[in-house]
Write a structure and sequence with these properties.
globular, 5-stranded mixed β-sheet, alpha+beta, 8-stranded mixed β-sheet
Length: 361
Amino acid sequence: MQSHAQTNKAVLDRYMSLPQGTRVQATYIWIDGTGEGLRSKTKTLESKPGKMEDLPIWNYDGSSCHQAEGSNSDTYLHPVKMYPCPFRKGDNVLVLCEAYKYNKEPTKTNKRKDCLAVMEKAKDYKPWFGIEQEYTLMDQDKHPFGWPKNGFPGPQGPYYCAVGASRVYGRDIVEAHYRCCLYAGIRIAGANAQVMPAQWEFQVGPTEGIDIGDDLWVARYLLERVAEDFGVVVSLDPKPMDGDWNGAGAHCNFSTKAMREKGGMEHIEAAIEKLSKTHDRHIKQYDPNEGKDNERRLTGAHRCSFIRDFSSGIENRGASVRIPRDVSKQGYGYLEDRRPSSNCDPYSVTMVIVKTTCLGE
């Protein structure tokens, strides 16, 4: 799709190859007031940062990010994790930040602070997570990338894990994103085309505790930046197209040390029993609008459960929580919570899972 917003990247390369001396560009990244959008800005450091303490606290206009009033808008960025930058390369870095208000309280959408406290309380359980992030590529007119402009592609069926120009749209973006994640040190586990054309998935994990939230948010940032270079829009809407088309989720695979050891099935089943009793609480935490986004997706169709009912089963992709067949066969491993929406906050998701299954809170 041609757009007036696109620029010539070959021209940009002339300037990006210029030496920058010993000074370093640090891109500060944070979650805005929507709970699903990301923002960033760049700060020059005098030298390469070797540890988190080398990164100063910074500020931004919170009133322009739905996080403060214009009359008192300074909002503060506290660096929490640093990654190599795949766009500027060299010693340049990406810096994931928590956002704090003028009174030193976390902003409403800063879920990381509470999540970190929960993960610290549960550290002896050794909670591991792997999240399957689904997303849809869109043209700038918000029409799915590669779809006919005055109609629809053929019915779902041939697109999942497909190859070929008539079945796969946007692979260049997926490949570029994958390599960026590897460069940045994110534990990306894989990627594949999904059931709806122009819909894709990448997996992050397994990682322990707070790391899954950090890595997934930065992986989302990388995806947005890569797609920006291609002039394509990334949608995390859990039901981007009405009708007989799949929605998009962020299935969360979870285990504790006891679940991963011999005899772990007993602990997996106990966790599922606890999850069954707190279904409504989890649904409210599994999208940024307390279940309203997921309501369009969790209809009981398209390999999804029904939002108001809890269900579980072995190898049942229509259940709220699935036990993979190989886990059932060997008697230990992990469970898959299929309820989180594609636009969920992974800090909220992992925090409530640990609270329910490990801490009994």
